[in-house]
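With this grant's support, we have settled on a layout for protein records. A representative record follows, to show the layout.
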Amino acid sequence: MDQRISRPVARTTGLLYLALGITGMAGFLLVRPLVFDPTDAATTATLLVEHELLARIGIALELALVVSQALAALWFVRLFRPVEPFAAAAVGVLGMMNAVAILGSTAALGTALGTALAGDPAGPQQMFLLSENLWLAGAAFFGLWLIPMGRLVLLSGLPRALGWFLLVGGVGYLLQSFLLVLAPDAGLVADVLVLPATVGELWMIGLLLWIGFRRDRSRTDVAEEPALRP
């Protein structure tokens, strides 16, 4: 591993990346399906009114995702700037662009809940569809931020296979974004395209946390060695 990579910064970056993953999965994959029916606007409006607290939790999770994405982008810059400043800056900028897209989605979800509580049967559905498309647009930037991240892994002495998973996964996210625009029914193919990214991201989180939290055996041995007495 490149000695220019700071262990405390790696630890914080790993924790922020982990928070990004947890809030994203909890909000988008767990809460959203419980308050949004993509085929029926009336059902969506009813679900939001009947499960207002759950809808608010979903909005809070998405806002937490925005915060963790933005902070993770900044800490990745700190982590990799000594390795290659331009690529590190690219990770930061592209990660922020994805955060902005999800921030727009968060606002759309808040508007969906507000219009549902006001009795509008159609407005919530339109806001959820806007949110879905903001996620789709943001996925392009998410793919783009993985590409320089993969390059930085290759340059830093971290496992080269991880770097290639991130590079291929970033390209997969880009292809998925265009595929879902051009062929909306190609869901299975789109899911397969991002599998390398999923492997790479989980590996990256685990590796950063391992680097950040592992004990330095040489320092521990020195600290535990009894002092010699004259």
Q: What stands out?
A: Residues 7-213 form one domain. The longest helix spans residues 123-156. The mean pLDDT is 91.
